[in-house]
Amino acid sequence: MRAVAAFLLAAALVAVSAAIALWFAWCSHSASTDANPHGLTTCDTDGFPIVDWHYWTAVNPDVVGWVSVPGTRINSAIVQAPADDPTYYLSHDIRRNANHLGCPYLDATCASTGLLSGNAVVFGHHIKYGAPMFADFAAFASQEFARTHAVILLQTPFEKRMLTVSGAAIINGYDQTKRTTFADQDDFAAWYADRMNECCVQLDSAPAESCVTFVTCSYTRYSNERTLVYAT
């Protein structure tokens, strides 16, 4: 009887482990966003992945952009967070399936001006397995990594922008520093100067007219930590 019980317990553990592995695999597959889902992804002469916008906007009309960073695993669609549920894409993937991997998303307050907002804030999970999402943005807290990966390729169905990383900061997630709109250029300049002053990595502190901030979780100082990467 003991042998039978041990066998049944072992079989149950194997079944549970297999189910968990299949679930993780499904989450990663459902969350993946290949630029060209029907073949080999290629890039244009400037290194931008050639995105099948027709396919991805049909999958989800919330798709507003694509971000990639040469030399990293960052290569993902960006969706617009809905105003009535700003954190929806923290727990739903690009296909709107419930998924702990989520999908990189533009802050809900940027809906009217999109990725051209005064400060366009894009969030993404830090995943250590499967689809990494924005995990590599946490590495920008290293001066050397930031310096050697300073180019961020950001595109929409209508334009392509080659951004340059200006700095990176590690903050407590409870800090209230996020702003996406500004009264005027002087208001933005003051806010941006404060952000550069708090950066642990600073590549270029020159004044800017606008910026894009990429945000992910990190795990070095605080229990609720975020790494912010500023690019102009």
Blueprint of the fold:
Blueprint: H1 2-31, H2 53-59, E1 63-68, E2 75-80, E3 105-106, E4 119-123, H3 143-148, E5 151-155, E6 160-172, H4 185-197, E7 201-202, E8 211-217, E9 225-231
Parallel strand pairs: 2-3, 4-8
Antiparallel strand pairs: 1-2, 1-5, 3-4, 5-6, 6-7, 6-9, 8-9
Annotation keywords:
9 strands; globular; alpha+beta; single chain; 232 residues; eight-stranded mixed beta barrel
Describe the structure in your own words.
Strand 1 and strand 2 (75-80) form a beta hairpin. The radius of gyration is 20 Å and the shape is globular. The chain has an eight-stranded mixed beta barrel. The chain is an alpha+beta fold and 232 residues long. The chain has helices at 2-31, 53-59, 143-148, 185-197; strands at residues 63-68, 75-80, 105-106, 119-123, 151-155, 160-172, 201-202, 211-217, 225-231.
Would you kindly provide a brief summary of this structure?
The protein is built from four helices and nine strands; from the N terminus they run H-H-E-E-E-E-H-E-E-H-E-E-E.
Task: Evaluate the radius of gyration.
Answer: 20 Å
Structural class: alpha+beta
Question: Into which percentage range does the β-strand content fall?
Answer: 15-25%
Would you tell me the overall average pLDDT?
A: 89
Biggest sheet: strand arrangement = 1-2-3-4-8-9-6-5
